[in-house]
Design a protein that fits this description.
Structural class: alpha/beta
Strand content: 5-15%
Largest sheet: 6 strands, mixed
Distance between the termini: 53 Å
Strand order of the largest sheet: 1-3-4-5-2-6
Helix content: 40-55%
Bound molecules: adenosine-5'-triphosphate
Shape: elongated
Number of strands: 6
């Protein structure tokens, strides 16, 4: 019973619109996850078998977790998230039980998206790691659970990794994670969309040109862009706090908002 309580079911609030770029990936997830969860009967009638498992792979900070949350939310599904490394460090001696519990919960709460972040930590290719008995059991349990997912039962597993190359090939067999989707680093157009998402609620001075920022941030991930915007906003806040009386800063008066504006200088 204690394990049961610790399986946290969430309803994420991320929407497709909160993710900049990645239009192809979103569409693929709509078709592979959202539609089957929302319209299982139609899939049955047409004899289409939706994937049970999807592996999102790509560089860090490119939105894999966001995508998994958004597809759960947009599918009106519950969301259970586990992190590979956490499973290893916290569940010592009871990993099998935990995995079983998670899938039981997922079935109970269906439709459910089970998200396994950094799945490479728990499912590296057998033989590629040391002292792997513990990991073997874990991988086997995961495979058993995935094989046991009934068609159209409303449970989908989404894994995420930066290292698809080290994942146990047994996980990629048909009926398991058989849909691989690349989540690439954002190009200039996608970076502009990401800047737009993250400045939605930030007061910007008129001299801020997001298109130019997108051009200048070659090599930045979505997470890097988010950090950049946050840092710029903090600089603006620091400036306001050091200049304005406390009442104004707390009241968020006109003058405060005005001085809080993030300007081009803050981004550079
Ligand atoms: P990791 O591989 O490090 O786990 P990830 O690919 O799962 O990273 P996320 O956790 O989804 O990346 O992204 C981290 C943060 O970066 C998000 O909370 C979000 O603020 C921002 N971000 C990343 N990609 C995007 C995007 N395409 N649009 C908007 N924000 C993004």
């Amino acid at each position: 019973p204690s394990a049961l309580r610790e399986v946290l079911i969430e309803v994420p609030n991320v929407r497709w619109d909160d993710i900049g770029g990645l239009e192809d990936v979103k569409q693929e997830l709509r078709e592979a996850v959202e539609w089957p969860l929302k319209y299982p009967k139609a899939f049955e009638r047409l004899g289409i078998t939706p994937p049970k498992g999807i592996l999102l792979y790509g560089p860090p900070g490119t939105g894999k977790t966001l995508l998994a949350k958004a597809v759960a939310n947009e599918s009106e599904a519950n969301f259970i998230a586990i992190r590979g490394p956490e499973v290893l460090s916290k569940w010592v001696g009871e990993t099998e039980k935990r995995i079983r519990e998670i899938f039981r919960k997922a079935r109970q709460a269906a439709p459910t998206v089970v998200f396994i972040d950094e799945i490479d930590a728990i499912a590296p290719a057998r033989g590629s790691y040391e002292g792997g008995r513990h990991l073997d059991t874990l991988i086997n349990q995961l495979l058993t659970e995935m094989d046991g997912i009934q068609e159209n039962s409303g449970v989908v597993v989404i894994g995420a990794t930066n290292r698809p190359d080290i994942i146990d090939p047994a996980l990629l067999r048909p009926g398991r994670f058989d849909r691989l989707i690349l989540v690439p680093a954002p190009d200039e157009k996608a970076r502009l969309e990401i800047f737009k998402v993250h400045t939605r609620r930030v007061p910007l001075a008129e001299d801020v040109d997001l298109a130019e920022l997108a051009k200048k941030t070659e090599g930045y991930s979505g997470a890097d862009i988010e950090a950049l915007v946050r840092e710029a906003a903090l600089i603006a806040l620091r400036r306001a706090v050091s200049r304005l009386p406390r009442e104004i800063v707390e009241k968020q008066g006109e003058e405060f908002l005005e001085s809080l504006k993030v300007s081009r200088r803050d981004f550079e």
